[in-house]
Write a structure and sequence with these properties.
Layout lengths: L1 H97 L1 H20 L1
Length: about 120
């Protein structure tokens, strides 16, 4: 009977060892599978982040180009307006030199008219 108990005891220990080994293997498989899934998900996230970063950089470059173009157009418009104002000022100076009495009369009339408008 002692042999029988010992045999049953060895059987139980063997089955426990087998069960533990199966659990250990299943755990290792689950960890490996989870690691693979996590790695794939991390790769997809990294790829999407790179794609989003590229799109943002492209949009920033386009916006910067548009700002540069607008700045250049503004500078050209300012230069053109300044040239026109200088030309107009020179024409007024010439007119005043050529016809000083008429220029003073126009200035007085414009001042009187402006005064009337501002009083109202």
């Amino acid at each position: 009977m002692n042999n029988e108990v010992q045999t049953n005891d060895n059987n139980v220990h063997g089955r426990i060892d087998q069960g533990a080994e199966r659990i250990k293997q299943a755990t290792s498989d689950a960890v490996a599978s989870s690691k693979e899934k996590f790695d794939r998900a991390a790769d997809r996230v990294e790829e999407r982040v790179h794609h989003a970063t590229d799109k943002a950089a492209h949009a920033a470059n386009r916006a910067s180009d548009k700002v540069a173009e607008a700045t250049e157009r503004g500078r050209e418009a300012y230069d053109h307006a300044r040239e026109r104002a200088d030309e107009w000022l020179e024409e007024v100076r010439e007119y005043v030199r050529e016809k000083p009495v008429q220029a003073v009369a126009i200035a007085l009339g414009a001042g009187w008219l402006l005064g009337r408008i501002l009083r109202r």
